[in-house]
Amino acid sequence: MRRFFNLLKKNMNAFGLVFLMAISFCFAMFQGGFVSWFIFYSFLPFAAYAAILLFYPLHAITVERKASKRECQAGESVEIVLTFTRKNRLPLLFMVIEEEMPDELEDRGIHRRLLTFPGFKRTISMSYVLESLPRGDHSFQSIRFWIGDFFGMIEKEAIFDSPLNITVFPPYHELDSLYLDRLFNQGQAGSTKKIQREHSVVSGVREYQPGDQLSWINWKATARTSEIMTKEFEVQKNQDVWIIHDDQPSILFEETIEVVASFVHSMLKKGMRVGYASTGSSLILPAGGGRHQRRKIFTRLAKEGPGATNELAEKGRKGDLPANAAVIFIVSEITREKVDILNAFRTNQGLTMLSMKNPAILSDEGKQAMTAAITKGIKVSFIEHEQLLFDRTEAMAK
């Protein structure tokens, strides 16, 4: 009996359609006359169309989803194009399409439901724009759509899988060169090639070349040869810079991601070799340079999320980072636990902690942690958005 009721409930619309057809036919038979038969024959095409929809092969429709770009910066817009292809030209009154958005987009209130009237078309295309996308690796999976008849008695629904990934890189600012040089000269990070060269051992002299600094001129050799001669330096091994991101949950988490992206972009642009790690993952990206390294780190930053674990501290104790590497730890605020994490890399040179929190509003615990860091030989600095001199849109335009 339960099985019968389940079958009846599932096909209630179909039974209702048959019931209405039977009622109108009986009314025409018993009542007779033009009006009763006119009602029956007027309702017959709509009932026949609804009956055809009951057997319409929705799963024979192919669905394709395309994006105008698979990678973009946070805040940019992406156009999504949906294409439905069917094998017959049966007229469809309407089609409602609903995108099943990734959770991170749904949490921001982003929903997309589209209505179209296919008619006799075999190929149906429509598009929509996702504006101001947030940072993240957004994975689109299913597309849900349904069709129906004139009176809404029959509705058929189908869900198709059409995977699509859109990687949204974090925003970044163009750091001012003077700010980076001042940071390096204070010993808070690895030196650039120019600064390294000034502290290298002089191995000889050569003729002046455009771009050489005045401090490199060898005046004695210049007077002797009557030509401007500059010092030739021994090539020192380039010092890598490793940036570590604090993955602890914080209201400033997105701001720390933005600062990391700004440092990575600006350092790589100056020709430095940059590596990346985060406290929430034991995976370390080796130091490298160029656009390929920038893309690797930005892809990693796009996927970063708050986490309570500190898997990186053990890596520091094992010495997985090169001993000559400078380490910059970017945190939302200074705590004793984070000082201990950075201190695990004590075999490295130039340990630096950059905090997003204003030093004027540090708690007593924060001040004690800062004192402990300085005692351990860790340099502490604070960074605010005012130090990121150029607007983000201007940096992306370059």
From TrEMBL:
InterPro entries linked to this entry: DUF58 (IPR002881)
Pfam family membership, one: DUF58
UniProt keyword list: Membrane, Transmembrane, Transmembrane helix
DUF58 domain location: 205-347
TM segment ranges: 12-30, 36-56
Domain of life according to the entry: Bacteria
PANTHER family, sorted: DUF58 DOMAIN-CONTAINING PROTEIN, SLR1927 PROTEIN-RELATED
Designated name of the protein: DUF58 domain-containing protein
Organism: Peribacillus muralis
